[in-house]
# Entry
Amino acid sequence: MKLRTLMRHAKEGAKSLGRNGWMTFASISAVTVALLLVGLFLTVMLNLNSIASQVENNVEVRVFIDRTATKEQQETLKNQLQQLSHVKSVTFVSKEQGLEDFIKSMGDDGDVFKSMKGKENPLPDAFVVKTDKPKETIDVAKAAKELNYVDEVNYGRDYVEKLFHVVDILRNIGLVLIVGLLFTSIFLIANTIKLTIVARRREIEIMKLVGATDAFVRWPYFIEGLMLGVLGSIIPFLLIAIGYHQVYDWFIGKNYQTYLFVKLIPYEKMTLYLGGLLVLLGAVIGVWGSLTSVRKFLKV
# Structure
């Protein structure tokens, strides 16, 4: 297609938006409301998924070493742990460091244990084992427990198993809801856009009767649908971006990232992904709604 012809179709598509004022407003409003709901839900679900992944990645296996084990035996145990399937890293934690970490984890309540420094330390040396996949933690812990020179293995069994179960449920529910909401939005938006095309069916029939090709008829509506979708996606994107910026600043200001050990998706990253996704969804839905409606009136 020549650039001149394409510009002509673009101009016609833009003019149609102005000529059909109320129908254009109705279509853009439908796109805006639907994509606002989709965008809000996606923002919440993306952050929940990110937080779940952060919590999963913090899961670790702590292998306490037998107090009677020599340095050579400890080194042997470390090599055996590193050779286990799905083990990503093995870090030695001395009993002194273990006491320091325990005191820090207790916060203000840990002050009562500071008097133990320099005295008999009841904690054993340990290896902290990280897996390449969080769900492999359970199997790695069971395998580590069977090795020599191991006194005890701790990975928060009840907590970890419940965590993985809850995370799987949340992800599955979120996926089903997002897909359902997207299909509902596509159906509502496309049908609203169809109404604007149906109202101009005589115009399409006349163009066909005077010899216009299907492509010549489709292009202005293709561009009009594209414009409707993109215009309808801008408002929800701006509203969600402003709202997320406020929530993100409040979360950072309250220092919840330190207390809860989780982070929200950074504002810049979220707006980039969400903006691109909403504009793409709006454009696809707008084009699809226009083209499927025009097709019905091309058979003259």
Q: What stands out?
A: Strands lie at 61-65, 87-93, 126-131, 150-154.
